[in-house]
Fold:
Amino acid sequence: MTLGKVIGTVVSTIKHPEYNGLKLFVIQPVDTNGKPNDETFLAVDVVQAGVGDTVLVLREGNGIRQIFKKKNLPIRSCVVGVVDHVEKGCWASR
Amino acid sequence: MILGKVIGRVVVSTKYEGLEGKKFLMVQPTDEKWQPRGDAVVAIDTVMAGLGDPVYMVLSREAALALDPWFVPVDHTIVGIVDSVDLVPEA
Structure:
């Protein structure tokens, strides 16, 4: 999983049937300080995240097929958690 | 999944089994503001996208799963046509 920030939503009427009823977000990957560190991508949502939230994103298809309990789901990235905060330095300081 | 814009059509007459009848489109991957990002790719279409349409694609193994039959050699599939992208105003 990676940290990301929800920076927008995608509205789409015509889509693959497996995407029906799913919320689609634009995700900006961020580092532990909240700074952007990669290219943006799209992800579906299963945790009712909102725009502006820092989120946990699963970028792997097999895990997502387990979440949806479907065998052939053409989805590759999914928001699986809303991050409250990131605690840093616990290990590095010892 | 990533955003892109359809920039052309690819006509392929000889193709691997399982890909018969599929529509091949040239797609330029873009960022969320529709600025081109990287090189154009050939993607299979599942939503009857046309030239100039803003679309989103699924990549890698999941690209093949969007198709029927699903065990086909494909790495980019168009799975939706974008109506709008609503972004938060930058702080």
Q: What stands out?
A: Residues 49 and 61 of chain A are 20 Å apart (CA to CA).
